[in-house]
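Schema walkthrough. Field components (list of strings):
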Amino acid sequence: MSDIVEVDARRLLCPMPVIRLQDCINRQPAGASVRITCTDPGTMNDIPAWCRINGHSVISSDQRQQEFIFVVRKNGDGER
Amino acid sequence: MTIKAVALISGGLDSLLAARLIQQQGVVVEGINFFTGFCVEGHTHAIRNRDRKREKRNNALWVAEQLGIKLHIIDIIEEYKDIVINPKHGYGANLNPCLDCKIFMVHKAHEWLEQHDFDFIITGEVIGQRPKSQRKRLMPVVASESGAEDLLLRPLCARNLPPTRPELEGWIEREQLLDFSGRSRKPQMALAARFGFEGYAQPAGGCCFLTDQSYSVKLQDMWDNRGHREYELDDIMLLKVGRHIRPSKAFKLIIAREEGETRFLSGYKRQFQTIKTVSHAGPLALVEGEQLDPRQLQLACAITARFSQGRDAESVELRFSDREKDSRNLQVKPLRAEQINPEWVIA
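Field assembly_structure (string):
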């Protein structure tokens, strides 16, 4: 498994964390994993929604104190 | 041949319906949503406790999910500054440059279309729906100044407008497009019911803070006091939060109105001088401006104490911090309500 790419989206309010994730995912090959750390509770809905819409997978989501951490796997076209 | 359209998705009902109308004609649709920094969407619910209890939903993502389409959210914060600062067509009732905004967004969508090999652009515009940007005589202005020309289709009111290229080329049937006009929302609601859409966002004062009078007053005050109109994302975010009180040209206080705002403003402690009540429960205040002299500091503390639980106390202790480097405690007598000059209160 390839290394996880880290995205720090703390202090950013939605939709900026989603944009940061989207821009990172767009630069990765299919199969890559991205871990994004957020502080806006809105990401609890927005990041899974963005992944569903665009065909990527939320591998894990975790809340630690005020931080929301998601690991997202980039799927290729047709992998929904 | 697969025909592909890119739809401007605001998160409102009109763009949802416009995209579905075109999907029904067998066209592949993807959505595009622009983030200007002034979007109402998403921000305030993340800040205020009152709003944290509401369902946290990004309406553009919700619309895309209803339609089963991809959504591309694009950060245009930097480019958008020129639209806000120098709108060619001027402002609306407040600091809303709606016509320039629409032209810019269609222009960006046209750029996206060319980069991604799509065929035409859809918007949810309806003639007469909005007083500034959706008048019939302005519809061709948006098409021409954006560069989209006849690749811009407004499915909800297309039959009130000259045929566009998607219609003339036979990519879609004009007869299946609509002829909505005016400010009534009833036709849209009836169409939503026909399509089976429920739970869509209700229009509530628009999707942009620049249409809000109170917000515009604060933005204008910021520009006037700085002597220029440049801004950063943090500047325009902070205008959405707290009470804004300017007791003098030298400084402005941004005082949290509740716990959620205090938490949000706490994220700025390294960038600002801050004041927080110590002896009583109370708000955090950011001081925007120059280094306070002792007299200004006393006043800033007395104002902040006014909005604490100690407002009626003889003395309130507060902690002043200078960008988390130096800090010291002060005792002040809170200002009485009538001592807050109404002219200090920005909005």
